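User: My collaborator and I are trying to settle a disagreement about how two of our proteins should look. Neither of us wants to argue from intuition anymore, so we agreed to look at predicted structures for both before our next call. Could you fold the first one, then the second, and keep them clearly separated?

Assistant: That sounds like a sensible way to settle it. I'll keep them separate. The first protein:
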Amino acid sequence: MHVDCIVGMSLDGRIDWIKNPEKLSEIYYGLVMKTSYDAILCGSNTILKAEMDETSSIKYSNQTLVVVDSKAKIKNWEIIKKQAWWNEKPIVLCSDDTCREYLQTLEQLSIDYIICGKERVDLSGAIEKLEKKHSITRMRIDSGGALIGAMLRNRLINTITVIIAPQLTGGISPQTIFSSSDVSDFESIIDIRLEDCRTQENGYVLLKYSIVIANS
């Protein structure tokens, strides 16, 4: 499977407190619409924070929403299914520790789920199952730094495109595109190769990198 990550941040790597989110969204979705994706991968917190249109009745995309939710956080699945940016057949990634009541609720709502991993979702195994069982071959991540970080640490992302907003935010809270435990050796550092570099209106910069696989 090919996995893309497109994310916006300040020059110092912060993904929060973007002063002009409308312009960032314009650039972001301009990139997204240029590629046909089978699925979009989100973390449960990203879905919980998203604004949902409870009256939505149109569909802009037929991609499948895939959500990591082993802790059974999401309750409003009926509203989520109606949103315009994906089809009405979401897939939930769960673990062995996901409560049975939640799985039963998903079954009652005719929502597919994949159990992979013990306490946490085994992302590598889940992606393999998404490709084999659901024929998903190209997916993009729309999530925060924790899920992106986990995907990067497991070498599950093929390309990452960073939209740099012309601002410096500062701060010490870890609101970055790559939220993960500190490395303990150089082998854990992920090498990337620059594929594209473009300036945008209003001082925004677009950088596209491919993830370098060992011995490639």
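The second protein, kept apart from the first:
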Amino acid sequence: MGVPPPSAEGSSSRTYHPRRLRRKAWAVALVLFAAYALARWRPARVQVRGPSMAPTLLSGDLALALAPGRPRRGEVVVVEHPDRPGFEVVKRVVAGPGELAPDGSTLPPDRVWIEGDAPSSSTDSRAFGAVGIDRVRARVRLVYWPPARWRLL
């Protein structure tokens, strides 16, 4: 006389537990954040060659560099050498746009003054003058190799 209850077999509806939904939401959020971070900060590996940034960076150090943004005094940056297109150097920003450069000039709004931490071993703005901000390729943020030298910059 009565109608049997519907069978669960063949049912396409799926029930998720709240814990499983939270895990999936976190996984999606993590993937979205990672994609955003890669697009925004464009991380790059930098290998230091030469003694010009000693003792901060030594030849052979591997560092992580991020997208340039506006360079600030004291930051370590990767810059395309003004006299050697395609050749990049790692130096410290000593003076930024509108600031007084070590040579006594006031820098225009689109230039920075860069120097190595080891002046006797560095070819930098003392030799070729201030460089355009458009030549700043990245800001060095972290030394990760060798492990004994690991640190944030």
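Some points you might bring to the call about the second protein. The first strand starts at residue 44 and ends at 47. The chain has one domain: 44-152.
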